[in-house]
Amino acid sequence: MSEQTKARSTADALRADDKKDAPAAAGGGPVGAVANWMDERTGSAKGISYLMKKVFPDHWSFMLGEIAMYSLVILLISGTFLTFWFVPSMGETVYNGPYVPLKGTQMSEAFASTVRISMDVKGGLLIRQIHHWSALIFVVSIALHMFRVFFTGAFRKPREINWIIGLLLAMLAMVEGFLGYSLPDDLLSGTGIRAMQGFILSIPVIGTYISYILFGGGFPGQDIIPRFFTLHVLLLPAILVGLFTAHIILVMVHKHTQYPGPGRTNKNVVGFPMMPVYAAKAGGFFFVVFGITALIAGLVSINPIWMYGPYEPTMITAGSQPDWYMGFADGALRLLPGFLEFNLFGKTWSFNIMIGAILMIPILWTIMGLYPFIEKWVTGDNEEHHILDRPRNRPTRTGLGMAAITFYGILFAACGNDIIAIKFHLSINDITRAFQIGLIVMPIIVFWVVKRMCLSLQRYDRDLVLHGRESGRLVRTAKGRFFEAHEDLDDYERWALVAYESPAPVDLESATDENGVRRKSARKDRLRARVSHYYFKDRVEPVTPMELASAHHDGQAGEQIESHPDEAESGHMHGGAEEIGAAHAYGHPSPHDKQD
Amino acid sequence: MTDDNEASISKEPAVSHNESGHAVATRHDDHALPERFENPGLPDHVHRQGDNDEAAARRSERQVATLFGLSMLATVLFVVAYAVIGKDDNVTLPILGKVHALHVALGVTLAVSMLGIGLGAIHWAKTLMSDEEVVEERHTLRSNDDARADFVKVMSDGADSAQIKRRPLIKYSLGGALGLFAVPLGLQLVGGLGPFKGDVEDLRTTLWDTEVPVLGADGKPEMKNGKPVTRPRRLMRDPDGTAIRLSDVTLGSVFHVLPEGINDTEHPINQKVKASVILISLQEDRIKNTRERDWGINGVVAYSKICTHVGCSVGLYEQTTHHLLCPCHQSTFDLTEDCKVIFGPAKRPLPQLKIDVDDEGYLYAPHGFDQPVGPSFWERG
């Protein structure tokens, strides 16, 4: 009884401050009234105003991830439309629709319904094409976004988790794409599923079991399309959307990275607030992405399944290629030599298939997932990083990244070896051989070339800071010598070129401690020192004020020249040439700041 | 770590240390230079034309409104196109050629309707909304020490209150239960997805291993000793399903072949995947392999059409070189050398199907393949 009273009094106490006073006037008419109604029930005013004030930096490369995000939304919308007409069944049917060439053909209901969407449902073809195109754009933009993140070092602390979430999203996007592409049960995608079953069979010990589980018995059976459908429309989208949400929340929590520039530090983020600028720009960009996808879908036909016909295991078309994002795996299968398959202990080991189709993606993804931690181990750097690297300022990382892209690119090109052979009238054997050699040699060459290019660009930056830019104006001295006047960079331009860290290789600590005892970590330290040396031995340090001053000073040591009085007054000398320092008015934004 | 130096934006040169204690901009005296350049801070804001010029701003306003208006117009046109254009109408356009009129009209109008909104909003943001950059502070993500201590306390108090450390019996039995609870669900799922065929019999056999009943004059199966009389399957043309006479197979011709009676099986497609065969007539003296010659007739040989790599149809035959090429991954098989792999990622030759001629002059397969067809699998051995 007393408990009850107490409970009631507690409840009463809670109600006591239930707006006896008039609520703070919302103001702003009906909008304000709605906001007031919501806030009194959710208390969301604070959180929303925080979000609306959030600042995002501007740069074109930050839009790549945005394209992926919007493509995902477009996929969800167009995909939902498609489910209203698509029949995920392998039941046999005879086509009787309006498309004459297929009349009377035996086909699965999945294929028949896809033809119906394309031919019979008004605007259905447009939705299908939007769905397929935006899937391709989704994966492209994920890949490009990943390149941006890698080359600018945006994966460093505190963003390692988001790098890994991103990798998972990339992998899921590819799998989701493959599943969706398989659903229409046309000749090309059926051949793709057939090849996939071949891949699965190559898995040691459990390969045949997985195949039976997946296909509900022998290939192709009756189950694969309905099962793929459930995975494609329910399971994977749920995981994708969940991971994507986590990805975005972490971007909010970390606040967006920014490129180095005047006023930008590791402790701030400089840009434009969500309300109104990014609401308009990003919101508008969604419509731009959707609009361009619709335009491509309307004008460029993709996957015309009615021309391929239904899946028929005895038929095949020349030029069988998967969607682009699966191309590299298919290319790997074309390059792996047959001798990698052998019999051992009475079992068949098909490494010629397994390496490309089963092992490669997990291995590549593991390496990519570990990279932030490897680099952190090499640099020993435990700081948070919110200022992006210019790729040239990290020559080894940039070289590694480009080598990886080369590796990927060659695999991708190898997937089109038959097309290349036909278009260029070359022997397919020669092309394949060249790709096999290139796959091993080219990444090494590319790494070396790119690293040298980065170092060279860094030296160019140094030169620019030290000696200014060539003004294109010739100056003649009293003695008749000619010089090209150089213009000093202003503080803002210079900052973009000198605001980077150039880590030195870590020194090898003595292998023994102060008591002469061999330290446990000696071997690990030696490895680390070696890797660090490899990473950072070739380094170009940013110009220091001292160096700039001495560059100017050396210049003044040269001969005095006569020219326009303004220049003579204000200039510095560079190897005898006149500097026009004041010609560039400070206090104006440099061209580097115009980022959008 | 000049980046870390917040104060450097304020153009104050006096700061000498950042948080991590690195010397950032040490000055020995008034004349000495700092070790590193200092962040010059945000440049002065430059106003756009529209910020000062109302006419320019009004022009922007009109442009934005025009784009939004264009979007509405395109939306109306979409509706009109949807209503007016027939499903089967075609139209010839420059570059694109003959296209599906409704599809292109809907695509373009939808695109313009979207792009109008998008470009309008972006133009609005770029020309009329404030372009003065805003600076937001960042804070280290790490919680402060009090919060972390509190977290540890909450967790350890909770564990203490639950007595999980003091009562290992609960700890381990809970661990065991949680570790196992998914087993029934997993078992049901995996168990139900099969059926498993542990002997992988279906991967080893094809329809060619079985025979068809012989039909009597009345169209019913002939019986002998209460059992239907059977004979080996004939080679039938794919897709028309007619039997092939040896005389039909002229030199250099290619036949795509399926076993007789394949459409009477429960799942013809599952049989086609394994049983499809390519029949080719070669000059007998060019066949280098004795077995190959023996299993054929007068240079007419039959091979499995399923690639031994990952199972695509080896559908491309090059007559001049006697090569069979798989269009999926370009494995190339030489027909004159028992279909051994001469290029590409496949390892094993295509299995040969022994053929013969029956009393009526039709080709048939006396027995099935002597090895599994198609891609390799673990148990193949």
Automatic annotation (TrEMBL), chain A:
GO terms for biological process: respiratory electron transport chain. It is a multi-pass membrane protein. Keywords: Cell membrane, Electron transport, Heme, Iron, Membrane, Metal-binding, Respiratory chain, Translocase, Transmembrane, Transmembrane helix, Transport. It comes from the Bacteria. Its EC number is 7.1.1.8. PROSITE patterns: CYTB_NTER (PS51002). Residues 1-28, 549-596 are annotated as: Disordered. Residues 579-588 have a biased composition (Low complexity). This is Cytochrome bc1 complex cytochrome b subunit. It is found in: Cell membrane. Its cofactor is heme. Residues 34-260 form the Cytochrome b/b6 N-terminal region profile domain. InterPro entries: Cyt_b/b6_N, Cytb/b6-like_sf, Di-haem_cyt_TM. One of its GO terms (molecular function) is oxidoreductase activity. The chain crosses the membrane at residues 67-87, 130-151, 163-183, 195-216, 228-253, 282-303, 351-374, 400-422, 434-450. It is an enzyme of class 7 (translocase). Residues 550-577 have a biased composition (Basic and acidic residues). One of its GO terms (cellular component) is plasma membrane.
From TrEMBL, chain B:
It is a multi-pass membrane protein. Keywords: 2Fe-2S, Cell membrane, Disulfide bond, Electron transport, Iron, Iron-sulfur, Membrane, Metal-binding, Oxidoreductase, Respiratory chain, Transmembrane, Transmembrane helix, Transport. Iron-sulfur subunit of the cytochrome bc1 complex, an essential component of the respiratory electron transport chain required for ATP synthesis. The bc1 complex catalyzes the oxidation of menaquinol and the reduction of cytochrome c in the respiratory chain. The bc1 complex operates through a Q-cycle mechanism that couples electron transfer to generation of the proton gradient that drives ATP synthesis. It is found in: Cell membrane. GO terms for cellular component: plasma membrane. The chain crosses the membrane at residues 64-85, 100-122, 174-196. Belongs to the Rieske iron-sulfur protein family. It comes from the Bacteria. Residues 26-58 have a biased composition (Basic and acidic residues). Residues 1-58 are annotated as: Disordered. Residues 295-364 form the Rieske domain. SUPFAM superfamilies: ISP domain. Coiled coil: none annotated. Its main location: membrane. It holds the Pfam family Rieske. One of its GO terms (molecular function) is oxidoreductase activity, acting on paired donors, with incorporation or reduction of molecular oxygen. Gene3D superfamilies: Rieske [2Fe-2S] iron-sulphur domain (2.102.10.10). This is Cytochrome bc1 complex Rieske iron-sulfur subunit.
